[in-house]
Amino acid sequence: MIPPATALLQATADYLEHELLPTLDGYHRFQTRIAANVLRIALREAELAPAHDAAARARLQALLHREGDTATLDRALHDAIASGAIPLDAPGLVQHLRQSLHGALDINNPRWTAHPHRGTDHATQ
Known about the structure:
Number of helices: 5
Order of helices and strands: HHHHH
Radius of gyration: 19 Å
Number of domains: 1
Helix content: over 70%
């Protein structure tokens, strides 16, 4: 039986970070650290992106009052804001943008969302 992709990503990142990285210096150490970080981003994306996408789609549908996939709705929101059809103070807009940013940071750099002193006190405003 083949392990799930998330287990393979985790095992490879762990190997690079805990077994290989300590044996390297300079350029190769730096590149190996980058490779391990890329694998960890891919792992978080595999684990978190479906839920973040579903939540974003629901928020976008509520904002735009229409159905569609997340990418299409996201583009429609962009166009509506750019044209002035949706004002910047529209109910739910700032909350959607903050939650979308939080979701992206959960995947790309979770340290930014793990520290309450980094602007999360504004997330509820």
